[in-house]
Amino acid sequence: MEQLHTIIQGCISNNSWYQKLLYERYYAYALKITFRYIYRYERAVDVVNDGYVKLFRNFSRFHCDEGVDMERMLMGWIRKIMVNTAIDDLRAHNMLPEIGGIPEYVWEEPDNGQSPEQRMYYKELILQVKQLPPSYRAVFNMHIIDGFSHQEIADRLGISVGTSKSNLAKARAHLQKKLNRDIQEADICSL
User: Fold this and answer.
1) What is the pLDDT of residues 11-36, one digit of tens each?
2) CATH, domain range 131-191
3) Gap between the Cα atoms of 116 and 58, Å rounded
4) Which of 44, 56, 82, 163 could form a disulfide with 33 if both were Cys (CB 3.0 to 4.6 A apart)?
5) What is the CATH number of domain 1-115?
């Protein structure tokens, strides 16, 4: 914990060595967040790097109160910046559908307290969400995974609250249909 505090203080002081340490320590985390929105690897890497530029430019705004889990606060702040940067990128590209896969090594990371089954389910969920149309995918990620309200989604994406709710309902229906199809296929294969 003391090491993280030192890294944070170094980043606040705009020390490039500490910025590199922070970047390397949380790069995989930032990339996974970005992959929920941006599926082309090269573009996702660019978005992560843009997010880190924003993070380092504004590091003096990061505050962590005494007795609070500093790493959780920092990871939440990184998550917020990466989500906003990814959304900005989607809007800049008019939410165009993307092609490309997620390299397998991105899913390999040190143990973060998740069981292998939890990591597998998370990976499967992200792969299913990837198949949603871009507007449904963005709303699903923002509301279900990142906890944005429909008003916040509407403001960020430049859509109405009703459109946000409709896109979420359609995304859920699409995922439910896919899940039911997978279950039926599994039942047929087990016969």
Assistant:
1) 999 999 999 999 999 999 999 899 88
2) 1.10.10.10
3) 35
4) 82
5) 1.10.1740.10
